[in-house]
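Thread title: Can someone regenerate the structure for this chain?

I was given the following input by a collaborator and told the matching structure tokens would be attached. They weren't. Posting the sequence so someone can regenerate them.
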Amino acid sequence: MMEYVWLVPIFPVACFVLAGLFGNKTPQGGGYIAIAGALIAFVLSALVSYDYYSSDLYAAGEAFEMSMEWLVVGGYTLNFGVYIDSLSCIMMLFASFISTLIFVYSIGYMDDQGEKKRRYYGEVSLFLTGMLGLVISSNYLEMFVFWEIMGLCSYLLIGFWSYTHPNGDEASINASSAAKKAFLVTRLGDVCLMTGLFVLLYAFGSLDYSVIFTDAPAVFAANETLVTIGILLLFAGVIGKSAQFPLHDWLPDAMAGPTTVSALIHAATMVKAGVYLVARSYPIFTQSADAMLVVAIIGGVTAIYTASMALNNMNIKRVLAYSTLSQLGYMILALGAGGYLIATGMDTGNQELIVLGTAGYAAGIFHMINHAFFKALLFLCSGSVIHAVGTEDMRHMGGLRKQMPITAYTMLIGSLSIAGIPVFSGFWSKDLVLEAAFAPFHHGLGAGSVFCLLFILGMITAFMTAFYMFRMWFMTFTGEPRGHCHGESPKPMTVPLIILSIFAIGSGLLILVGLGDFMAQSLAVGMNGILAALGLEVEIHSAMHIAEEIFTNVWTYVAIVLAVVGIGIAYLMYVKKPFVAENFDETKKGAIYNLVAKRYYFPQLYNQISWKLGYGISRIVDVFDRKVIDGTVNGLSNAVVGSGDGLSSAQTGYVRDYASYIVIGVVVIMAVFVLMVYYGGGF
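Best answer:
Regenerated them for you:
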């Protein structure tokens, strides 16, 4: 089946074409076509994953690779193919599975969209194609093509409702502007990523994963500065796509799109692509400990900074958007800490640091898996609430638990999971992330004090996460009703919620049945050759050792206590003292409240940069275009026209004039001939 892995993205793209051409002639505007494409992709992904897991390649720590020549540019050959290891299998499985559930949910949520459904189902199918194509690509250029396909689809889907956003938290949310903002901000990261690919191509002579991963130590030793620049440029692309600080502000505005699109972007596709790129590029990222330190700092700062903006937001979808930003920061923090440990371990020949770094790598991927399930659940629950009450503003909700019991209790499961309450899935991966962040300090490494601070920020973030998630749940489902509710959502919407809630409870337990080994295998594929040359190897602790470490670590219980305290404070503020919308007045809040509510004035900063810097540069480009480019073209055309006019004036139509020209020409030629003979010394 591995030889047919290319079919995984083919079926969704075929459904994109079918839904676009014939969607309006089929039930649900092409909805069932999109569901079929995603379901087939999931089945194929499962078959490919099983085939790889049971193969000799997996046992030997090797990837399945198949490629063909694509482009030849000068001395560079660029290939097009597939690259399958355990990381590819994990990404394929959860992306296709969760997308299938979201597409089923869309049957109920998008039922009133009429002929727009054809466009919606076509675009979400292409969106899934981009993600699946990205994770099976065999080189960075091919990956970048699918990366850009997702960028295009996000623009189209965020702006699905064009200039009006029903149920928005403001008088009028311009979905078109939100889509353009997402497109332009992520393009800034993508330009950096593309530049990084040029750097890697120049340094390695290839963009194939297998070539770069094998040659990474030698090339880094010969061109340390150049490769480090390439690594940081790749990570700049991650900052844009995964909405890390300071390119984070587009993601909250992306809530202007349908809630199903938000679930796709936050759980199954798009922002997870950046985390995947860091994990996939570990063999070259870990060549530079300084680069991994930068990765960890960006992740830690993003985690706490964006979590703070969810503390007082009244829009249910934006609270979840900020939580996504924060949880992505957790993932990047874990990968950065793990990479720093591995880089230091390679420099010092310390096998223990390699093991700890492998655990950090696994923690980042594990949290990405768990987050995919509970965040898809939370977004789809919010969509169910919005579908029932007709607003995203939590001030107009309340008391919905009795009217929407399935939505209420499945969202409670998602909230418990993201808060890190045992034994829900988020508990396991969040604890491993915090352990990875603390490890460099615990082992007295050079940047240990920085990681100690990042660990403290991570613990504070855990407290904040529990508070704002249960603030959201209590405001929505407890107290007295503050608006009209149509009742529980239809089965196409509630069944996916029930399925996702099962995974939000149980996916974390997979770490106890061998998932850690499966995740570490992808690191072994890329790095075993590098580490073997140093007498080291990729290794991860057993499942029982991981469980023992979690439950014997005092910081585990500190994190649990902080989460419980956060939930308790939310209970005291919003249940014991019920929220009354009439008493809420934002104008009377303090400076800190307003600072957070204004998103630390980052939107205004973006606007100022756009006007001052962007507009200034555009004026310079405009002058250069008009004066230099257009001036050159117009000057050449005027010269041609002028010379033509001059020659045409000599064409009088009189024979005597032409005879005069001939005589003059003969005289000139003879004069030239005589001068040549004279100065040439005669015949």
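The first helix runs from residue 7 to 22.
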